[in-house]
Design a protein that fits this description.
Elements lengths: L1 E5 L3 H13 L4 E5 L5 H11 L1 H4 L4 E5 L10 E4 L15 H16 L6 E4 L4 H12 L6 E3 L2 H16 L6 E2 L2 E2 L7 E2 L5 E2 L2 E2 H4 L2 H12 L1 H9 L6 H15 L4 E10 L5 E12 L2 E5 L7 H18 L5
Parallel strand pairs: 1-2, 1-4, 2-3, 4-5, 5-6
Antiparallel strand pairs: 7-10, 8-9, 10-11, 12-13, 13-14
Helix pairs in contact: 1-2, 1-10, 4-5, 5-11, 6-8, 6-10
């Protein structure tokens, strides 16, 4: 199992480190265009292997040739949001970056599974899909896991409970139109709606929708990377181990939820063949369906701005 991470910045390097520490891959390659930087980071990670007890070999490179024959490729390359910058403003520049990265990857790894982290997430996943020509099951975006993790962490903070006892899912686009589902959220099997009043739940939902911006405003010169990297690593693990976990991520819809021809956050079974099944939540009520469709409209609008 060979996994290549494209982009050696905070998200990419953190993702490579998590993958190396978990030890389920034989090799992790970290690529970046900055001369020497990924090589130094990769060497640093490999030198930690005797302490971590992991035999996953980590290397850094400036050459795409070193990513050849990858089983999974995680694309993190792109500009990070800065304070005051909307996701929409990232589209033009990051479209070119993701396009170039994808073309370079597929020349050398024709059977890889692609996981995209670059923003705007849903649109950049679409760019990678169209440029690669890969089957849609082999291209996905990291979004729902991150959004769901943020949502769960805020609930755990509010209730002073273990994060392990919070079960939830967040649907839709990766941005302000995402759709947390409080009605289907449980804490230790108890419905969230039995534990918190509506105003507190609404506050948590709003904070989840704005969580990325909250961190950008604190960091000032960058965006979140620990949680996004951990989310991508979880996707890699389910695919590499053929665990068939049901994880929310940006998948190409072909009629599920009454939508098609776009990438959108939905629960999906991830295994050795990539997105092996999109799981449809049939119990969505009218309000939840409306929010989901509104999110789809927002995604299509940004997709239309990606010039390929």
């Amino acid at each position: 199992m060979k996994i290549s991470v494209i982009g050696g910045g905070n998200v990419g390097a953190t993702c490579a480190h998590i993958l190396a520490s978990k030890g389920f891959a034989n090799e992790v390659v970290l690529l970046d265009i900055l001369e020497g930087v990924p090589i130094g980071k990769g060497l640093d990670m490999w030198e930690a292997a005797p302490i971590a007890g992991s035999d996953t070999f980590v290397s850094g490179t400036n050459s795409y040739q070193d990513t050849a024959n990858s089983d999974i490729v995680v694309i993190t390359a792109g500009l990070a949001r800065k304070p005051g910058m909307t996701r929409d403003e990232l589209v033009a520049k990051n479209t070119e970056i993701v396009k170039d990265c994808t073309q370079s990857v597929i020349q050398r790894s024709k059977n890889a599974i692609l996981i995209v982290i670059s923003n705007p997430l849903d649109t950049m996943t679409y760019v990678a899909y169209k440029v690669s020509g890969f089957p849609h099951k082999h291209v996905m975006g990291m979004a729902g896991i991150l959004d769901t993790s943020r949502y769960c962490s805020f609930i755990a903070m509010e209730l002073h409970v273990s994060v392990e006892d919070v079960a939830a899912v967040v649907l839709g686009g990766h941005g302000p139109t995402m759709v947390p589902l409080p009605r289907l959220t449980t804490v230790g099997g108890v419905p969230l709606t039995d534990l918190l009043p509506k105003e507190r739940i609404d506050a948590i939902v709003k904070r989840t929708q704005e969580a990325g911006t909250e961190i950008v405003n604190y960091l000032k010169t960058g965006s979140a990377y620990y949680a996004p990297a951990a989310a991508a690593a979880q996707m890699c693990e389910s695919i590499a181990k053929d665990k068939k976990r049901i994880l929310p991520c940006a998948c190409w819809l072909t009629g599920e939820y009454g939508l098609k021809d776009l990438f959108m956050g939905v629960p999906a079974m991830l295994g050795k063949n990539g997105v092996e099944e999109v799981v449809v939540i049939k119990s969505l009520n009218a309000e939840e369906k409306m929010a989901f469709e509104k999110s789809a409209e927002a995604i299509r609008k940004i997709m239309g701005e990606a010039k390929l």
